């Protein structure tokens, strides 16, 4: 394996990163259509309102740290006078892709620093292919940027030969930035501190770097919200219900296999096996043990929180990839050591990597990258016939300013509002087009469907020049859009 100890290793690294970049570009321009709900829309909207409307508006639980990064491409597009549309949104996601590619580079250096060059390259190979990592690399959520600065914090916290305190300071600084981007990263603060056992002076510099950013977070909140640490306090109050003692009992949380199932879905059995094997060298290599401890501690915290989402695991995905690469390196080394068969060792690696590749290529088809693409297509089609449409839909599903600028009036009616009969009637009375899914929910049948009948909404097929194909009284719904998204139009 001398190839991975030479300068040619950088060629392998470059080719893997190039493959990852091209894969993301392909998915971006062929599969991504529409924003995902929740955080991705919120962060992008915060940045957009500042750059284009000079308004510092946000939901109070949001930190502004990530939105500051998104303002950079938006300012460039404003300067170039790029109009909202698909290209506009794609350029915003390109910022996220830059973060994700940077994650690959830092992952390589971590793997190399704690073990060897082979580990660094293989960990990047595994991370480049990972479906969960790629899925959230193509959204405007804050997870991938938080992962990047978390990885940088780990890299600068790993002990080196000269034990420079400036490295520890940068470790704390990057840990603070990661925390500022996504507050839940604080759960990983404790395990990362284990790098500083027996290095108290370095730990103080790490803590100093973190405190500087922490105070900056409070200052930004004071400036924008008028209250010191407003978003931080509001965020933890908002998420307080996820503490097991309140709404969940301990037994139900232990029996919940959500994250275990997520790992089985997003990682091949080979990677999981290699990850377990990495426990062996961790007994005599301190830095490997701490990487594993970081994964176990963070995973355990998320596991016992009642609010679960597979994207929360993105933070530990690079750690899993590093552990799997360590396991592969350990087996490779043992084959050479025990059997004196370098070619067998090479064959083992050559067989393993394609199997992992085929597993992840197969998983690409499960990446839902256009959940509201039908809404975007539908609005574009409507604009051909109606220059000032009044569209009723959850605001996050329409692409908002990113596709249509100020040309589209969206009246927000999200499914949690369907239980309010008065609100439903008021909104549908004002609207002209209504995009809807979850039509089988009780609230839809009880409140929304009668209102649609009352205001004479009918289902339309957009590609037949808005011709009515059925009446809602027949309960026959035309299924045109992905994820069962339907369009109703108010009759004249």
The best one-word shape is: globular
Average of the residue pLDDT scores: 84
Which spans of ≥5 residues are poorly predicted at pLDDT below 50? Answer: 242-248, 461-482
User: In angstroms, what separates the terminal alpha carbons?
Assistant: 74 Å
Name the structural class. mainly alpha
Taken as a percent bin, the fraction of beta residues is: under 5%
- What Rg, in angstroms, do the CA atoms define? 25 Å
Major sheet, described briefly?
A: 6 strands, mixed
Which range best describes the helical content: under 10%, 10-25%, 25-40%, 40-55%, 55-70% or over 70%?
55-70%
Would you write up a description of this structure?
With 492 residues, this protein is mainly α. The chain folds into two domains: 2-366, no CATH class; 373-490, no CATH class. Helix content is 62%, strand content 5%. The chain contains 23 helices and six strands. It has helices at residues 8-30, 39-53, 65-79, 86-114, 117-129, 131-136, 143-157, 165-181, 189-192, 200-225, 230-238, 244-247, 250-255, 258-266, 269-277, 279-282, 286-303, 317-339, 342-363, 373-383, 400-404, 421-430, 442-454; strands spanning 390-392, 409-411, 433-436, 457-461, 467-470, 486-490. A six-stranded mixed sheet has the order 2-1-3-6-4-5, sandwiched between helices. Strand 4 and strand 5 form a beta hairpin. Helix 1 (8-30) runs parallel beside helix 5 (117-129) and helix 22 (421-430) packs across helix 23 (442-454). The radius of gyration is 25 Å and the shape is globular. Residues 242-248 and 461-482 have low confidence and may be disordered.
């Amino acid at each position: 394996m001398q190839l991975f100890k030479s300068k040619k290793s950088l060629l392998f690294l470059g080719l893997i990163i190039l493959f990852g970049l091209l894969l993301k570009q392909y998915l971006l321009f062929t599969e991504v259509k529409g924003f995902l709900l929740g955080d991705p829309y919120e962060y992008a909207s915060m940045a957009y309102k500042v750059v284009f409307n000079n308004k510092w508006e946000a939901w109070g639980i949001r930190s502004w740290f990530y939105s500051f990064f998104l303002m950079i491409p938006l300012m460039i597009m404003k300067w170039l006078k790029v109009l909202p549309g698909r290209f506009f949104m794609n350029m915003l996601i390109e910022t996220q892709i830059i973060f994700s590619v940077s994650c690959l580079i830092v992952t390589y250096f971590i793997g190399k620093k704690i073990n060897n060059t082979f580990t660094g390259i293989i960990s990047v190979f595994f991370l480049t292919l990972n479906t969960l990592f790629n899925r959230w690399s193509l959204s405007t959520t804050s997870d991938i940027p938080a992962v990047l600065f978390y990885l940088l914090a780990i890299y600068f916290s790993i002990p080196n030969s000269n034990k420079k305190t400036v490295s520890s300071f940068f470790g704390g600084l990057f840990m603070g930035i990661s925390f500022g981007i996504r507050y839940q990263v604080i759960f990983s603060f404790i395990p990362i501190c284990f790098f500083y056992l027996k290095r108290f002076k370095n730990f103080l510099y790490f803590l100093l770097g973190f405190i500087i950013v922490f105070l900056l977070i409070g200052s930004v909140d004071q400036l924008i919200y008028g209250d010191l640490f407003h978003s931080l306090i509001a965020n933890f109050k908002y998420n307080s219900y996820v503490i097991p003692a309140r709404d969940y009992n301990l037994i139900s949380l232990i029996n919940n296999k959500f994250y275990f199932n997520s790992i089985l879905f997003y990682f091949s059995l080979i990677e999981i096996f290699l990850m377990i094997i990495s426990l062996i060298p961790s007994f005599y290599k301190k830095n490997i043990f701490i990487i594993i401890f970081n994964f176990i501690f963070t995973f355990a915290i998320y596991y016992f929180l009642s609010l679960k989402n597979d994207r929360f695991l993105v933070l530990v995905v690079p750690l899993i990839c590093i552990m799997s690469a360590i396991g592969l390196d350990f087996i490779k080394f043992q084959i050479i050591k025990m059997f004196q068969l370098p070619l067998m060792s090479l064959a083992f690696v050559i067989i393993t990597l394609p199997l992992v590749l085929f597993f992840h290529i197969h998983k690409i088809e499960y990446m839902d990258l256009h959940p509201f693409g039908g809404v975007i297509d539908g609005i574009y089609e409507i604009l051909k016939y109606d220059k000032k449409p009044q569209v009723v839909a959850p605001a996050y599903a329409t692409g908002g300013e990113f596709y249509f600028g100020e040309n589209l009036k969206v009246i927000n009616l999200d499914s949690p509002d369907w239980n309010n009969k008065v609100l439903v009637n008021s909104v549908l009375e004002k609207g002209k087009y209504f995009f809807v899914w979850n039509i089988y929910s009780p609230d839809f049948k009880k409140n929304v469907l009668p209102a649609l009948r009352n205001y004479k909404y009918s289902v339309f097929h957009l590609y037949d020049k808005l011709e009515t194909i059925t009446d809602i009284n027949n309960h026959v719904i035309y299924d045109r859009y992905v994820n069962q998204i339907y369009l109703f139009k108010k009759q004249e």
